[in-house]
Write a structure and sequence with these properties.
TIM Barrel; globular; five-stranded mixed β-sheet; ATP binding; Pyrv_Knase_C; alpha/beta; Pyruvate Kinase, Chain: A, domain 1
Length: about 375
């Protein structure tokens, strides 16, 4: 069974001996945090991740956590060091995470620097870790590529009893905007020192999955914990169990709204799956946006997103339920339909006799560029 919710591990001393194992078997993305390593050490770790993901033919994304200068008396961002953004560009990471954002000025600056270095393809994750970020959540979500909820820091700036409802609100708003949302800090905190989680931690992770998070990120549990592998396996077991349960609510958010073709197709797929049994969805997507539209409605089967290169595949590493697959050639409509079955078999998502659902734009209509998604097809493998 393919795990839909993604898992992110923070690298540190505890992951040194198990890095290849967790890249091959456990994680969808890796976080590089300067708190757990100096610059030279982080360069080595980034290079090692790139080498291992190529060796094992996986699309493990690399997230770089930006250093920042903030007021000691209160968690407010003063500035992000430009040299750290340049470091991320030079190391060609897939995402950068921006902390303690009270307004959009600093992250606009981050995007400007990425543009200067011709690295606009690096995804911008904005951390919601202070009261000001929460108060500007709608504006931040509209600007960011992904959202990260840092509950530890956020909980220091608001009454603790408010945090559960605030978390649910942020997750729902990110879901509605088709932005990946990551939940982090103190997910399995007891497993820093113990091989088993507490019951409260299991319930916490499970409820986050039910609420709609795209990814669970472990920090100290993997960076410095005594049981990093066990912590990752625990998250995996919780995710796999919850995803098999029929406990996810019906989403009527866009039922009566006007929308684009790709978005409308995504909704129609959700309702098609209530009437027919398919093993997976294959979507040919130039930008990855159609895969995000489909994933937003939490289909009960995996979404195999066919993209043109590894960088675009890694950009989907944080999107719930999406399995990227790389096809560098531009295919005709007939080739898309024909190859979709073999892609599903290669990804171990379907076997002979199963039905799959295919969605794409028709590239053989005389247009220069690949058109947006405009058809749905169901085929037997």
């Amino acid at each position: 069974m393919v795990r839909k919710v993604k898992v992110i591990a923070t690298l540190g001393n505890s992951t040194e001996k198990i890095l290849e194992d967790i890249i091959k078997n456990d994680v969808d993305a890796i976080l590089i945090d300067n708190y757990y390593g100096e610059e030279e050490e982080n360069i080595r770790r980034i290079e090692e991740v790139k080498k291992l993901r190529d060796k094992n033919d996986v699309n493990t994304a690399i997230i770089y956590d930006l250093d920042h200068i903030y007021a000691q008396s209160k968690y407010k961002l003063i500035r992000i060091e430009e040299k750290n953004i340049e470091f991320a560009c030079k190391q060609d990471v897939d995402f950068i995470s921006c902390p303690f954002v009270s307004n959009l000025d600093e992250i606009r600056k981050v995007k400007a620097i990425l543009k200067e270095h011709n690295k606009e393809n690096i995804g911008l994750i904005v951390k919601i870790d202070c009261k000001e970020a929460y108060e500007n959540i709608d504006e931040i979500i509209s600007f960011a590529d992904s959202i990260m909820i840092n509950r530890d820091e956020l909980g220091m700036e608001m009454p603790y009893q408010n945090l559960p409802s605030v978390q649910k609100e942020i997750v729902q708003k990110a879901n509605n905007s088709m932005k990946s949302v990551i939940l982090t800090t103190q997910m399995l905190h007891s497993m820093i020192y113990n091989p088993r989680p507490t019951r409260a931690e299991v319930s916490d992770v499970a409820n986050a999955i039910i609420d709609g998070v795209d990814a669970i990120m472990l920090i100290e549990e993997t960076a410095i914990g005594s049981y990093p592998k066990e912590a990752l396996e625990t998250v995996d077991r919780i995710i796999n169990y919850i995803e098999q349960q029929d406990i996810f609510k019906e989403d009527n958010e866009y039922r009566n709204h006007t929308m684009g073709i790709a978005h409308a197709i995504a909704i129609s797929i959700k309702h098609l799956l209530d009437s027919i049994e398919v093993k997976n969805i294959v979507t040919y997507t130039k930008s990855g946006q159609t895969a995000k539209f489909i994933a937003r409605y939490r289909p009960k089967v995996p979404v195999l997103a066919v993209v043109s290169n590894k960088q675009k595949a890694r950009q989907l590493a944080l999107t719930r339920g999406v399995v990227p697959f790389i096809e560098e050639k531009t295919l005709t409509t007939e080739q898309m339909l024909k190859y979709a079955t073999s892609y599903s078999e290669k990804a171990d998502l379907a076997q002979k006799g199963d039905f799959i659902l295919i969605t794409a734009g028709q590239p053989d209509l005389g247009k220069k560029d690949v058109p947006p998604t405009d058809f749905v097809n169901i085929r037997e493998v």
